[in-house]
Amino acid sequence: MSPCNYFVYTAGPGRPWLDLLPDPNAMPFNSQQFGLFPCRSGVSEHYDVAFLNSEWVASDEACQFELCTFSSKTGRWSSKPVLLDLSPSEIHKVAIEHETDKLITIGHDSLGLVDLWRGIILLEKLFDDYPVMRYMTFPKPVVYTIDAYGATVCGEIAPECARDVACCDGLIKFVDIEYCYSDDVNGNGWKATIWNRMLSWKDWRKRFSVDKFDILVDPSYSTVLPDLWDDNTKMMQLKKLICTIPTLSMYDDDFVYMMSTMTEEDKNAWIISVDMKQNTLQAVAPISAERFSVLCSDCRPCAFSKYLKITSGVVIPNPVGEYTKRNHLQDRVLEALRTQDSLNELDDCSEFERSNFEEYRSLVQSSPVSSLHSNIQNVAGYYASNDIEKAASKAVNICLRASEDLNQVLQESTSYPSAHAEAIRSKINVVLRAIGSLVQTVPVQPRMTTVADSHGVSKIYSEEEKNNSHEP
C-alpha cells in the first residue's frame, strides 16, 4: 500500500469536488511523477492520471518501464509496457542518471519527466496500446563532477535555482540562468536565456537572452523597491537584488518570474517578473520571508485563483500598481489585434492541399496565434479586477472559448490532419469574429487609437502603429 493518499480536486464551472485515488499497487511514487489529463472527449467531469513505473530486472540487466494510468470513468488503474525509442547512451541516462525534478503535460497525450540538469524523458501516445519513450536533452550542457563516493554530480547549486521547464499548448519552454559571481560592489550578475521546442522539432530554438544589468526598470517601481535607485546612473536598476529560482509562465509568453531579496538574511522578499522579449521588469509583488528562506523556496504557477470565490467586500490589493496594469492591458489587446491580422492573412490562403496541410498548421502555431490565449486571459483579468460591464466580460469569455477550441483542434490534427483541415478553417473564422466583438468593448487608452479601415471595420492601433500606417 502507498504510504500516502492522493486526491484530484476539480474546479471550474459547476460545483467543485474532490476525488480520492485508489492505490495503484505499484512501487512508491510521489506527486512530482503524476500527469493529469482532462477527458479527451470534452466531458469536463472526467480525467486521466498517469505516471511512469520502472523496475530493474537482474536477469536481463536492464530496466523495464510501464505506464500506469487511472481513468475517472472506470475508477480503475491499468498498466501497459512502454516501447523505447532510445539510443544506448540515452537508455543509460534514463535508467541510471535521470532524476525527476518536475513533470509537465504536453498536449493531450504526452508526458515529460524533467531532470533540470540533464533533459526530459518523453512519454508519447499515452492512450495508445503501446506508449513510446524518447529522450530530449537540453540545449546547454552542464559541467559534471565526481564526488568523494564516485557518483556523478551536476552543477554547483540546486537545479531549481538556475533552471525551469514549462509547457503551453504543446510548446515546451526552457530557461537557464548563468550566474556570474563577483566581489564587485555592483553585486553578482546573471544572464537568463529562453529556448522553445515542439515535439516535432529536431532542435531547441533560442528565443531571448537577457543580462541582469541591462534590464530596464520603470521609475514607478521606486514606491515598491526604493533601494533599486542608483545615484550614479540616476536610474532604477536590478543590480542590488539577489535573484534566484526562475519560474516560467503557464502561458505562451516570454515572462520569467524570480524570487528576490536585497540580502540573503532579508525578511522582506519579492517575486519579480521579467519580460524577456522587451528586456524590462514587468511586475513586482512583495512576499514574506519570516518563516522560511526565500532563496531556498520556489513558488509554483497555478490557475486556482481564477476559481476562488472572494468574500463580498474583501479587496485584494495589487502591489504592482495601476501604471503597470493599464499598460499591460494595452499591450495584450494590441497583440490580440496583431493576431487578428495574422489570422486574416492565413484565412485568405487557407485553400490548401493535403500535401502541404502540415506546413499550414505549422504557420498557425508559430504565428502570433500561439500567444493569443495568454493575451486574452490578461484582458479577462483586467476586466475582472476593474468591474467592467457584463457585456465586455461576455465578449472576453467568448474569445477565450474560441481560442481554446482552436488550440484543441490544432493538437488533435497531428493524428488526423486531413480530417481537421476544415475544422481549423472553421475555428479561425470563429476566433476572428470573437476578437472583433472584443475590440468593441475595450476602453481606449491614451496609447491606443480607434481607426476604421477601408471596409468600415473599427480597429485599435498603438500611436506608433497609427503614425507609421499608410491608411487614411
TrEMBL record:
Protein name per Swiss-Prot or TrEMBL: DUF1618 domain-containing protein
Domain DUF7880: 329-446
Record-linked InterPro entries: DUF1618, DUF7880
Pfam families: DUF1618, DUF7880
Ranges of residues in domain DUF1618: 114-257
Organism expressing this protein natively: Oryza sativa subsp. japonica
Top-rank taxon: Eukaryota
